[in-house]
Amino acid sequence: MKKLMILLSLGVVCSLCGCGQDREDMAQKNTIEEMTTEYNTQEAAKSEEADVSTEAVTDEQTEVTTQATPETSTEAATEQAEENGDKSDATYMNMYHEILDSIYQMMCAGMDDYDYIEGTNGIGELIMSGDDNVLEQVGYTFEDVNEDGTVELIIGGIYEDDATNQSQTIYSVYTFQDTPHLLLEGWSRNRCFLLEDGTFFNEGSAGAIYKIFEHVKLEPDATEVSYIDYYFSYEKDESMEEIGYYHNEMGEWDPNVSEEMMEDAFWEKFAAYGEEVKNLTFYPFSSYEYTGELEN
């Protein structure tokens, strides 16, 4: 998965900095190969305010202010959520509060003070577009994708015209083993989706002739995803006039360790993954309760 992120990260630099056209495919190929070789193999949602009665709020919880430390505020939010029957959700929120806080603060800072945080390329594209409605267009949800008892945090995009807050677009996925671990990242040229069976589908482009898509899974208690299938296109010779289509199970962008396949079969497989994408319901960051203190 990280290999695909390396191959496609060149496009992110141009997207965030407002560059023009992509470089020539051969130049992209050379840069990609150098990066790949160098790299080697390497809340939960808060209860909606409409559902929380003022009678349920205790004097102690009312006294929690923005001056409280993130830990104190999170504990108070956890206690309140548990009183309202959301014990599991409160636990997940506590697990991932540092990630959620950092993303929330980054979006509040806006374009002028944008500072990249690992795992936020997709959100960065929204921020750098100058959109003032980012908090409504980005949300979070929790899913135990591999049913190992550890719930993953998923950050994703919300369609502006969808009142249900449902979407298939994923910006980042984290799992938790002692601390949060970034598993996957998505942006405009590296799109990430959760499939109905709890695995993930990524697809992207590294130039006009380089199409890449991959099928990955998270093993129980793992902190990195592993490959199931990896598909890509690649030129057959230096003329770059004939394109080959390849598959392997190692995540290697290399025809020499892959089996060649027919072009029709390549695109049929791509379409089949699209049919298995799962809709997710996100909680918009506009309703997120920040546990720290925003910088001015």
Task: Describe what this molecule looks like in 3D.
- The chain has 296 residues and is an alpha+beta fold.
- It has two domains: 2-42 and 191-275, no CATH class; 64-186 and 279-287, no CATH class.
- It is 32% helix and 24% strand.
- The protein has helices at 2-17, 25-39, 59-62, 70-83, 87-95, 97-109, 121-128, 134-137, 263-275; strands spanning 138-143, 152-157, 166-167, 170-177, 179-185, 190-194, 200-205, 211-218, 225-235, 243-248, 259-261, 280-281, 283-284.
- Strands 6-7-8-9-10-11 form a six-stranded antiparallel β-sheet, sandwiched between helices.
- Helix 1 (2-17) packs across helix 2 (25-39) and helix 4 runs antiparallel to helix 5.
- The longest helix has 16 residues, at 2-17.
- It starts with a helix and ends in a 12-residue tail after the last strand.
- 35% of the residues are buried.
- Mean pLDDT is 77; it is low at 9-74.
The radius of gyration computed from the alpha-carbon positions, rounded to a whole number of angstroms, is 21 Å
- Strands of the largest sheet, in order across it? 6-7-8-9-10-11
- Estimate percent helicity: 25-40%
Mean pLDDT: 77
Count up the domains: 2
Strand tally is: 13
Give the DSSP E fraction (strand runs of 2 or more residues). Answer: 15-25%
Subunit organisation of the chains:
single chain
The separation of the N and C termini measures 37 Å
| Number of discrete helical segments | 9
Reported for the largest beta sheet, the result is: 6 strands, antiparallel
